[in-house]
Write a structure and sequence with these properties.
Among the domains are: about 60-140 and about 265-350, f41 fragment of flagellin, N-terminal domain, CATH 1.20.1330.10; about 155-250, no CATH class. By secondary structure, the chain is α+β, with helices and mostly antiparallel strands. The protein is about 50% helix and about 15% strand.
Length: about 400
């Protein structure tokens, strides 16, 4: 059977092929402009998934990299402040050595006492240093100077409700704090309802870990170390699952911060503690440590009293304080080395991911130019044929 090919059919075939060649030519021009093989998901769905996965991995590396840079900056400032603190204690030790000798006079010791008073102020300023608006040595207690001018008594702070709490009654704390470290306690409601039926959990580390679920919140509830909390239904809403209350419990001394060390994620599932605890650096709450502010205060008192024996008794303690601060300086250096190792590893991995992304989405420009020139010739041929069809008429056939 013979099929008749009309001029209209020729026209439609020609225009269809022309559009295909134009479309392909446009895609090639787009690839040359972007120098990428994949410019939209439809170009290569499987390749697009690969590129998206690689980009997600690179974004994670960039996030970890920023965390590492911030942690390194924090440690750099911390190391500088601690080095200055160590120098202050070393100078105080040298002063005590000179003033404990028989050649020192009452007048020289009075003058030295004034120097020690300034030393205490300078050391406290270093211990209360901030970086990026945050205290370097406060742990997880960001609201006030971590070290005070005078030692405070043991205390239990007020219970602070979370802003998201439903319960609108009162939470009252009481008791006598008996622990030898400052702590942040938290009470989390597990099952809400009436006080007698509600269940709860207690954390003594600011919510990092939680104890077993317990029932009954009637009257004073002991949550540990002599701390009690009592809930009073003075409002209209009962305790609700998820309600959270926190409080600070402080032991006696100059330190009002706690021993928590700030941490940051530097890898998937890898949390790195980059902060140095002021409680561990400046107080005697770690085994073998001395309370440097107490030692300096005792030195000042001995100098003011012209007490040579009292002055001499502080020399070894000042050396101990100096040693414990220097150990913390060394810890800063060790942590920076760990961060730099992780940073170098991530830099190498980022180069590998960049290469994989390039292989997946970039185009071979030289090959693309050859292909483009080939399609340009085909496009010109299509234009020529289209022009010839456009010129066909009955007059052409009558000639």
């Amino acid at each position: 059977m013979i099929t008749r090919v009309t001029e209209q059919m020729k026209y439609f075939l020609m225009t269809e092929n022309l559009f295909k060649v134009q479309n392909k030519n446009g895609r090639l021009m787009e690839q040359m402009a972007s120098q990428k093989r994949i410019n939209r998901p439809s170009d290569d769905p499987l390749g697009t998934n690969t590129v998206m996965d690689l980009r997600t991995m690179r974004a994670s590396l960039e996030s970890y990299g920023r965390n590492i840079e911030n942690a390194k900056a924090w440690l750099s400032v911390t190391e500088s402040k601690l080095s200055s603190a160590a120098d202050i204690l070393l100078a105080a030790k040298e002063l005590s050595l000179s003033q404990s000798s028989a050649t020192a006079s009452e007048a020289s010791r009075k003058s030295a006492a004034a120097t020690v008073s300034s030393t205490i102020d300078a050391l406290r300023a270093l211990a209360n240093s901030k970086f990026g608006g945050r205290y370097l040595f406060a742990g997880s207690c960001p609201d006030a100077d971590p070290f005070t001018a005078v030692p405070g008594a043991a205390s239990i702070g007020a219970a602070e409700p979370s802003a998201a709490n439903v319960f609108d009654g009162d939470a009252v704390t009481s008791g006598t704090y008996t622990a030898d470290r400052n702590k942040t306690y938290a009470v989390r409601i597990v099952t809400g309802g009436a006080l007698a039926a509600a269940t709860y959990q207690v954390s003594s580390d600011g919510g990092k870990t939680w104890g077993a679920v317990k029932a009954g919140l009637v009257g004073d509830v002991a949550i540990g170390d002599g701390v009690n909390i009592r809930f009073e239904e003075t409002g209209t809403e009962q305790l609700t699952s998820g309600d959270l209350f926190s409080l600070q419990a402080l032991t006696a001394g100059y330190c009002r911060g706690n021993g928590d060390e700030p941490a940051v994620e530097i890898g998937k599932g890898n949390t790195f503690r980059y902060g140095i605890s002021g409680e561990g650096v400046f107080t005697d709450r770690d085994s073998g440590n001395v309370d440097v502010f107490t030692v300096l205060d005792n030195l000042k008192t001995a100098l003011e009293s012209n007490d040579a024996t009292g002055i001499a008794s502080q020399i070894d303690l000042l050396q101990g304080g100096y040693d414990q601060i220097v150990r913390s300086v060394s810890r800063c250096g060790s942590r920076v080395e760990i961060l730099e190792t992780a940073q170098n590893n991530y830099s190498a991995l980022d180069l590998q991911l960049t290469e994989l992304m390039s292989n997946a989405e970039d185009t071979d420009v030289s090959q693309l130019l050859i292909e483009y020139n080939s399609h340009e010739i085909a496009l010109e041929a299509c234009y020529s044929m289209a022009a010839q069809i456009g010129n066909n008429s009955i007059i052409q056939f009558l000639k």
